[in-house]
Design goal:
By secondary structure, the chain is an alpha+beta fold. It has two domains: 4-120, Aminotransferase class 4, branched-chain amino acid transferase, N-terminal domain (D-amino Acid Aminotransferase, Chain A, domain 1); 128-284, D-amino Acid Aminotransferase, subunit A, domain 2 (D-amino Acid Aminotransferase, Chain A, domain 2). It is built from eight helices and 15 strands. Bound molecules: N-(5'-phosphopyridoxyl)-D-alanine. N-(5'-phosphopyridoxyl)-D-alanine binds next to helix 6 and strand 13.
């Protein structure tokens, strides 16, 4: 089935969708994005993603392409047209194009570019990968300093995934000044005893929408949370570990740098949090 996608006000087949070669998203990575998951044909935490999108746009002074209600309508329409039961909606806003390449931002009246498409992912919730757990390697974090803004500068995270793949693993956690920042496309946690440890929010990491929901749910379930800097050595000696993201929810981690955590299967806290997250998300999806 050919996907229907959305480009600047028009719904059209993916094969007909076009963006200018001068678009700053293409030339300069001058763009921000959001990924919202879909379960039972409904959007998970749309509000959280819409608020973060606005923040990313504000931080970079990119114009808002349309209202939140219009964005919701577009998300829903694409989910229906493309018959997505489980999957993702990808959204990108760029600073647009004024018809040439220039480091200087285009003139004020240049409209932003808005693109959305869906990704069909049957089995996203009941994922075999989550039942098995992920194997992680650690790599240096050499990204820019404003990781709290969800820009499309994803070359290094993408290279990190490839380094993991080459090492026979699933993903990489990044390390800066001796401390773990986050995963290539997720937030990172370890569990020791009854305590979940994760890095506090700052400009060094993305403020994950799933992170916020999972930490709230963990608190409600009387779990202990310690938001502090942590080293990869601490994580390697943990009882269990996991990551969170809109595309994988709560993903147990079973190995870090070749060292097995616990008995090498997803830990009870990660499995419980995944269950709670999926259940609550389904109940509040719109
Ligand atoms: N990635 N950290 C990074 C670097 C990320 O790219 C992501 C999300 C997260 C988790 O954020 P959230 O819970 O809001 O998805 C943390 C998305 C899923 C992606 O790039 O596909």
């Amino acid at each position: 089935m050919t996907r229907t996608v959305y480009v600047n006000g028009t719904y059209l087949p993916e094969t007909d969708a076009k963006i200018s070669i001068f678009d700053r998203g293409f030339l300069m990575s001058d763009a921000v994005y959001e990924v919202t998951s879909v379960l039972d044909g409904k959007l998970i935490d749309f509000e959280g993603h819409a608020v973060r999108l606005q923040r990313s746009l504000d931080e970079l002074d990119i114009k808002k392409p349309c209202t939140k209600d219009e964005l919701l309508k577009i998300h829903r329409k694409l989910v229906v047209i493309n018959q997505i039961e489980e999957g993702l909606v990808y959204l990108q806003v760029t600073r647009g194009s004024d018809g040439d390449r220039d480091f200087v931002f285009p003139s004020e009246d240049t409209p932003p570019t808005l693109v959305l498409f869906t990704q069909n992912k049957p089995g996203l919730a009941d994922s075999p990968a989550a039942r098995k757990g992920a194997k992680i390697i650690s790599i240096d974090d050499i990204r820019w300093g404003r990781r709290d803004i969800k820009t499309v500068q994803l070359l290094y995270p993408s290279m990190g995934k490839m380094m993991a793949k080459k090492a026979g693993c699933d993903d990489a956690w990044m390390i800066e000044n001796g401390y773990v920042t986050e995963g290539t496309s997720n937030n990172a946690y370890f569990v020791k005893g009854n305590t979940i440890v994760t890095r506090p929010l700052s400009n060094e990491i993305l403020h994950g929408i799933t992170r916020k929901a999972v930490l709230r749910m963990a608190k409600e379930a009387q779990m202990q949370i310690d938001e502090r800097l942590f080293t990869i050595e601490e994580a390697r000696e943990a009882d269990e570990a996991f990551t969170t993201s809109a595309s994988a929810f709560v993903m147990p981690v079973v190995e870090i740098d070749g060292i097995q955590l616990g008995n090498g299967i997803p830990g009870p806290i990660a499995r419980r949090l995944r269950e709670i997250y999926l259940e609550e998300s389904r109940n509040t999806a719109i």
